[in-house]
Amino acid sequence: MFRLSHSEALYGLLLVPVLVILFIALLRWRKKAISLFGDYTLVRQLTPGKAYTKPVIKFILLALAFTFLVIGIAGPQIGTKLETVKRKGVDVVIALDVSNSMNAEDIKPSRLERAKQAISRLIDQLQGDRIGLIVFAGEAYTQLPITTDYGAAKLFLSSINTSMVPTQGTAIGKAIDLAVSSFSNSDSAKKNKAIIVITDGENHEDDAVEAAKNAYKNNIIVHTIGMGSVNGAPIPVFYNGQRTGYMQDNNGQTVITKLDENTLAEIAQAGNGKFIRATNSDDGLGIIMKEINAMQKNEFGSKMFTDYADQFQYFLGISLLLLLIEFIISEKRSKWIEELNLFGGGDEKK
Question: Which domain holds residue 57?
């Protein structure tokens, strides 16, 4: 297992392309300055003691030395001891609607983006709990199996968008069924599992209420969070990241997507959970988290690296070696290389 103890130091690598641009600009300026005295090739022949390629080599060495230095400062570490760590918590699977209607902007910045922000904050509040992610539209897919790796959960969350499920629709029932199958069958009698469905509730595909009832029969609580407003909003259409208009029906009328509160309330009631309507000021996850924290905790073990060995010294050593080589290299042409004249053409100095 590899990690960085001070990953924020990697921002220093942003200086490398800046230095490259400045160095290229310097080379061009020097060439232009030399050309003021005459033909550039002729001037080079008249200054045989000057090496014109060594500055480039020296700069490359300096850039590499700086890169290794920054990586060393970031504190690379390798896990050396793997242990089973006992945790207590609940299993939570979040089913997130990624249909096109989630692009509506009645909740800012959009229904989907606001939902992702809320999930990210929920992940930050988890302590020993396990989390899984499911995305759904016309079909449902597992985005992240149940895990305690909160960093991975955030990484997968950031990649979610409305184009990742090719089949449009809102199959809430399929999402709940997939979430139920995601949980471990062991300790099925314990009430330590929950599903959070985040959607605008426009279900057109299946019987989501029946799916929620089936989940509760397996001691799985189903909560729902409604994203959107009852008045509705148009669905933006994007092309290459730019909004080109709003979705229209076959008659050329702008499609308005509205929050279906009744359906989501029925689903939550069938799953013995809570229905929360998200607003611009409250995403509703705070109330859901209180419900989750009050649930029965289950003890489970997970493999984790508990000891890490520092590796920064190797990167700093390479950086110092590159700096030493750069210091040794002279910008003047090496006389013994000239005497070798490996390629002939003694009158032509490279």
Answer: 2-75+311-340
- Same domain assignment for residues 230 and 297: yes
Is 288 among the domain residues? yes
Q: Is residue 97 part of a domain?
A: yes
Helix (H) or strand (E) holding 45: helix 40-46
DSSP count for the chain of H helices, then E strands: 11, 13
- Determine the Cα–Cα distance for residues 6 and 310; give it in Å rounded to an integer: 12
- Summarize pLDDT for 194-253 with one digit per residue, the tens: 999 999 887 666 789 999 999 999 999 999 999 998 889 999 988 877 888 898 888 889
Q: What mean pLDDT comes out for the span 311-317?
A: 90
244: domain CATH number is 3.40.50.410
For the chain, the domain total comes to 2
Residue 304 burial class via C-beta count within 10 angstroms: exposed 0-12, middle 13-18, buried 19 and up: middle
Q: Are residues 318 and 241 in the same domain?
A: no
Query: Domain check: are 184 and 121 in the same one?
Result: yes
Same domain, 29 and 142: no
What's the pTM value of the predicted model, to 2 decimals?
0.63
Residue 345 maps to a domain:
no
The answer on 147 and 289 residing in a single domain is yes
Q: Are strands 220-226 and 91-97 parallel, antiparallel or unpaired?
A: unpaired
Tell me the three state secondary structure of residue 96.
Answer: strand
Q: What are phi and psi of 145, to 5 degrees?
A: -65, 160
- CB count, 10 Å around CB of 325? 14
Token digits of residue 91: 């299993």
| 276 DSSP β-pair partners | 225
pLDDT at 21 over 90: yes
Taking the C-alpha atoms of 53, 54, 59 and 61 in order, what is their torsion angle to the nearest 10 degrees?
Answer: 120
Nearest to 324 by CA among 70, 52, 18, 64: 64
Q: Where are the alpha helices (DSSP H) in 80-163?
A: 111-125, 150-158
Per-residue confidence at 81, pLDDT binned at 50, 70, 90?
low
C-beta neighbour count of 318 within 10 angstroms: 17
Q: Examine the domain organization and report whether 299 and 253 are in the same domain.
A: yes
What pLDDT does 78 receive?
Answer: 81
**Percent of the chain residues past pLDDT 70, beyond the cut:** 80
